[in-house]
Amino acid sequence: MDLPDLRSRLKAKPLGRAFLAAASLAYGAGVRTRRLLYDWRVFKSHRLGCRVVCFGNITAGGTGKTPAVALAAQTLRQRKYGVVILSRGYGRPAGKAGIMVLRDGHVPPWTECGDEPWMLHQALQGLDVPILVAPDRVAAGGQAMAFYQPDVILLDDGFQHLALRRDLDVLMVHAQQAFGDRRLLPYGDLREPLGALARAKLVVLTHADLIPPSELDDLKEEILKRGRGAAIVESAHRPDYLLDAAAGRRVEPEILKGRKAVAFSGIADPSQFEGLLTALGVELAQRWRFPDHHPFSVSELRSIDNAREGLPALTTMKDLVRLPEGWRETFGPGLYGLAIKLEITKGKATWAKMLTAGTS
Q1: Residues 208-244, buried b or exposed e (16+ Cβ, 10 A)?
Q2: What percent of the chain has pLDDT above 70?
Q3: What is the DSSP string of 4-55?
Q4: How far is Cα 115 from Cα 138, in angstroms, rounded to an integer?
Q5: 65 and 156 in contact (C-beta within 8 Å)?
Q6: What is the mean pLDDT of residues 79-108?
Q7: Mean pLDDT of 242-266
Q8: In terms of C-beta density within 10 A (0-12 exposed, 13-18 middle, 19 or more buried), how is residue 279 classed?
Q9: What span, in angstroms and rounded, lies between the C-alpha atoms of 98 and 126?
Q10: Residue pair 54/354 in contact by the 8 Å Cβ criterion
């Protein structure tokens, strides 16, 4: 049972709600104390010898950090800056020590590096952007400086990673869901109190195209008030390409327009993925939703294959890399992974300017 299911069950009873409220108070006290210990320099925060740009959020669940980091790397490389990405490697096997490097010509299996670093590498192939994967991102940053001398280091999912100093905090906010019920974990979805917005210098509103302009204006007004004048840009998620999994080749998403298909995913917000498919003109005959970062089994794939009745099966790139060995024999042809890109729809100049500020 994952956290949302457990939380829903606990909220259904007064005693469960009281337990969650008490747990949130304890969690909030821990978050604030940790922040103060860094502010008072009891815990050390390390600075690297180049510009560090951090991407993160203050809510649990998907806000589009990985596509944003990919877009930032592409933006910087287009301007001839040297870039390195630091990732903790979520989904990497427990106990996996050391620093793993993904770069052109050297790509370990996702099971060793984590699904998100693997996806980042796929999006950045040919751009010469090393991705260093390690839970100790201070050590990874030191290695990045020693071996690659980058102009900019991008810190993926690092808003709460206070051990590494940054020059720019980029906060991702899902426009449709924003701050949820505004309660801290585990009662709500907030990783930090809303006062943490004040640390962000740039806020990227994701899925800004999916809410009415009046709601978007209200959200921006609140962010400006709490964020002490942070710059705000708007963005949308767009289909990039389909990967024909069996053939290992890219195809245009439009090949499925007007066709029936099935979909399965194990991501934080499957409705966004399914919505992109619907917008492409795909008629979803059936869909399966699994927990975020779900490691698929052969039996699950066999069940989906039997139920799809020959229809194309669509999943995310994040899920595609988690398929078990032997999936081709189990599933066969007709499986596609949808690659998604982030598009800045308002504030492109601000986005580029803030990424490169202070970089010679």
Answers
A1: bbebeeeebeebbeebeeebeebbbbbbbbebbbbbb
A2: 97
A3: HHHHHHHHTSHHHHHHHHHHHHHHHHHHHHHHHHHHTTSS--B--SSEEEEE
A4: 21
A5: yes
A6: 84
A7: 92
A8: exposed
A9: 25
A10: no
Structural domains of the chain, ranges and CATH numbers in brackets: 3-39 (no CATH), 51-237+343-356 (3.40.50.300), 238-341 (3.40.50)
Question: What are the tokens at 313?
Answer: 């099966």
The pLDDT value recorded for residue 113 is 84
Average pLDDT in the chain = 92
Helices (H), 173-212: none
State the alpha helices, DSSP H only, in 79-212. Answer: 110-113, 115-123, 137-148
How buried is residue 123: exposed, middle or buried, by Cβ count under 10 Å (0-12/13-18/19+)?
buried
For residue 360, CA distances in Å to 79, 151, 164, 209, 336 come to 11, 8, 22, 34, 42
- Sequence letter at residue 96: K
Longest dimension (CA), the chain: 62
Q: Name the token pair of 229.
A: 């004048």
Q: Please tell me the predicted confidence (pLDDT) of residue 2.
A: 63
Q: Can you give the pTM of this predicted structure?
A: 0.92
Closest CA to 183 of 59, 16, 15, 19: 59
- The DSSP-derived string for 216-268 is HHHHHHHHHHHTTS-EEEEEEEEEEEEEETTTTEEE-GGGGTT-EEEEEE-SS
